[in-house]
Structure formats: structure tokens, C-alpha cells
Amino acid sequence: MIIRVNKTSQDGLTKKVDFKNEVFYYHIFGSLYLENETEVIKAIQDDNHRYLEKLVGDFTIVVLDSTFRSVKIVSDRPGKKNIFHYINEGVLTISDDFWEIKNALSLGIDDLDITGIKQQIVFSTGLNNRTILKGVKTVPAATILTIDLTKDTVTTKRYWQFSYINNQLSYDDKLDLIDETFTNALGAIRALNPEEPSFAVGISGGLDSRIIPYYAKKNGMQIEGFTIGLEKPRKLFLSNDFNSANKIADHFGLERRTLNYNSIPFETQLNMESKLAPEVCSQIFKIVDVSELKSNVLLTGASGFIIGASPLYKSIKQSPLIEHTLLHQSLLGVKPKAAKAKKAISSLTGLALDFMPKLSASGFGDFFTKDELDECIADIETFYTEFETISDSEKLMNYAIFGLGRNNSKGAFESFLGQKESYSIYTPFFLDTVQQFNEAELLDRQLFQEFIANRLPELNSIQGQSFKPTLSGNINPITNVSKKIFAMGNFVIRGNGVMNYENWVNSSEFKKLKLRLDNDTKNIQTKLDLSFDYGEHRVHPGIQQNILKMQTILLKM
């Protein structure tokens, strides 16, 4: 939807509310869930941060005052809606659709931001709300933008940030709080969709695959399971992921459907995601025919970093913040050779082997130079200056929420590129809960894993993804080693059935498509003085996927 506002008129703001003898016109992108719209608009005008930070929803709200001088745009805390805005000569244009605002502003190849293009490829998003279109920005999370139509100025004020809250909660109190949050989250989703006969859930053997069905059933919700990937990568046995997915489905009595990662040709996948979600990282290998699912609503574990998943590794306590951010919030990390084998041996023996990704601090040749990397680092440092008084792990959480978080709302696992209604069990529901954790409990999902091991022991015995062993409480070292050996052996024999991107980018279909898109975009690359050639550099498979998607987008410009 397009909204246009200038000094004398507005188009698209169809609702209004009277407040303090003044009329305010407004529009809500997304949903306020169960909140009262009028009270929310009043809180925005009163600049009531305490009220806004308690809102639960998936929204961005646009409010215009009756004088037609000022517009406020307010996003939810996790910033789940990608909303685009552009201000020029007293005219403000807003949309929730990239192609819509591009066409409304009559922008083309000459209006592309080369830095924005490269940031979206390498960081999976533009830094500091940049897009690939010059002058077009996204609305940051947990923020009030105030736009003065008489001066063409934009003032940014963040009304919430993540930080640990000192409390007197005991260990058991915190486990109770996690249980209560999950119960309330699924209960709220159920209340928002009272007519839905079933809800779709991705089942892959991971922690979310166990948590979501458990609490969905606790709230009386019917579940339809699906797994995207390849069932038998070793040709003979079911993959480790699919084997675990079947056990989870059996445990909960679920129907589970396999959706092959290549059931739709890769070129068709690229065209779909370039049309439906051009502003986020590539979802190729995860796009399927949504009509194969009966359910209209997805329950997901999007933004799992909220409870301490990647990038919130304990290594942040030893690594400089910028280096850790680049390694775990960009695609600049390159794994050393035999990384999986080294990781397995290290996990089993405790030896300090070199298996962690290494930062490509010099970039990737002409495609992404050292100077361009330094420019990106400066953008990240600018972001972190807002949070000078908090710890590095808190800063990183804010970076993840305000950057990566919004991209998950159009991820293929999370919403099938927006073709299905979707809800995450983590955002916004867990934001307040996790602030009650301390750093040790958050990093590496420590408290979350202990919660499953202690409160949901019936979900422990199923092996996790990759060669992760089953979860456990306090066990002796010998038992721990034997479980690791079994898990590794099982994984080696069965192989990886989901998210096996390193192998899939080496498929002949992918390579042929890469060669063709390189040729088809040659003239555009020359015109923009842009290179997608990373030479002989080993790069993350995500970069290869993102380049193909960006090339597809350029061909549509």
C-alpha cells in the first residue's frame, strides 16, 4: 500500500482519532494484535515510551496531525515490518512494498545505491536502514520517526532498547517464566486466529521443532508439520534431520510433509523471492509451493537469537565486538578446510582445534574491497555509539534485533515470502522475558537448553541437528562422551538433509544459472561500475545465493 502526504493533502490515511482538540489521521501496517488502536495513537502523540514499549504486535503506524506539518512513523520493538519511506520537497511517500515505492517514485537503474547493493549481499540487509534505492530508507525497530514536511527533515528517537534488568528471580523462577511466556505466546496466537483449523510448523529436529508443537498442543492447536530439504543425501538412509523430524512428529502425533528444496526450479525461486521479498537475503533452497500445505498460518522460531542462539556465542567475551559482529552478523566469515571434522573432534576430545570461521578482513577482491568493508565497519560503529553504557552482549542483541530481526518476517521458513500469515514464538513475546536473564544464562542458549532438559525431559532423547547429541541434565563425563560418539556416527552415516547450502550451491543447476545471470547482467554491471566477481576467494554460500538474487532484481529494474 502507498501512502502519500504533503503540506496540504494526504492519501492512504483512512482512519482518524480526536485527541486534545485535534484530529490525527493514521494507518497501521500489520497488526496491533489485541491492543486498542485509539489508546496507541494517543500514546504516540504523548510520546509515552513506557506505554509503547509494552505493546505486543507486528506493526508500523503512520500518524499525521491535522496541521499537515508533521508525520510520525512508529515501529514495533522487533521492527518486523519492512516499511519504506522517502521525503523530498515536502512530499512523503511510504509503502510496505519495495516495488510499489520504486514505481511510485519512478526510480530505475540510475537511482541504485551501489553501497546498498553490496551491503544487502554481504550483510543480508542495508546497514543503518539503507536500501538499494538512493534516498529510500527503511523504518528502524522500536523507533519513532518524526518527519517535518515543511523542512524535509527526519528526527529519530528510539523508545526501547534491550538490556539486562536486575531482578531477584531464582533459577526456578526463571524456568517458570520461560514456561509461562511460551504458554501465553501460543495462547495469544490462538486467540488471534480462532477460526484456523490447523497451524503449520517446520519440523527439522532442532529445539524449535520440539517447543512449538508442545505448547501449541497445550493451547489446543492442531499442527501440520513440514520439512524442507532432501530426505536421503547419502542415497540409502534418511538424513539425520529427517530421522529426528519423524521421531518428533511421532511423539506429538503430527502429520509431517516433505517439501523438497529443489521441487521448484532455482530460477523460478529467484523470480519469486525477487518479486515478493527483494529487500532481504536470498531464500533460494527454502522456497516451495505453499499450496502443498493445508494450513493458512505458520508458527515459527524466527529470531531465535532472542533466546541466545547465533550470533550470541560465548566467544563474544573473548572477541572484540566489531570482529564478533562481522563474523556472526555478516557473510564475511570463511570456514577453514575440514572445519566439520575438526569441530567433531574438538567436541569429542576437548582439543582446541581451529574450526571456527575466519574473518575475511580484506574483503573479496573487486566485488567487495577493503575500503568498502571499512565503510561498513564505520556504519556498525556508528550504530553502537547509541549504546555506550551497556555490555557487548547487550549491544550485539540490539544490533541483531534492529538489523537481522526484520528480515526474518519474510524468510521462506518464516512466512514463505509473506504468502502465509506467520507468527514467531520468540518475537515480540520473549523480549521482556529474556531481559530477566543474565549474560551467562543468555549466551549459547544456556538457560533455554537447561529449561528443555529440566522441564521438558520427554523431548530430550531425540538427536538434534547436525551432530549435536541429545539434550541432558547433569550426567557423568563417560555418558556424555558416549552420547557424542553416537550422535556423530549417526550424522556421518545419515548426512545433513536440511540447510545443506554448501553442497547445494555446487549443484550443476545452480552453477549454470550463475553463469547465465553473470552474462545477462554484464551490461548493467558495466553501467553501474559494479562487479559480482569474487575471483578465487572462498566465500560463504549465502553470498553466492545473494548475488544471484541481486542480479535477478537488477534485471527487473
From TrEMBL:
Principal EC category: ligase
Pathway of action: Amino-acid biosynthesis; L-asparagine biosynthesis; L-asparagine from L-aspartate (L-Gln route): step 1/1
E.C. number: 6.3.5.4
Pfam families: Asn_synthase
Single Gene Ontology MF annotation: asparagine synthase (glutamine-hydrolyzing) activity
Record GO biological process: asparagine biosynthetic process
Reaction equation(s) it catalyzes: L-aspartate + L-glutamine + ATP + H2O = L-asparagine + L-glutamate + AMP + diphosphate + H(+)
Positions of the Asparagine synthetase domain: 200-261
Listed name of the protein: asparagine synthase (glutamine-hydrolyzing)
Source species of the chain: Ferrimonas lipolytica
Lineage: Bacteria, Pseudomonadati, Pseudomonadota, Gammaproteobacteria, Alteromonadales
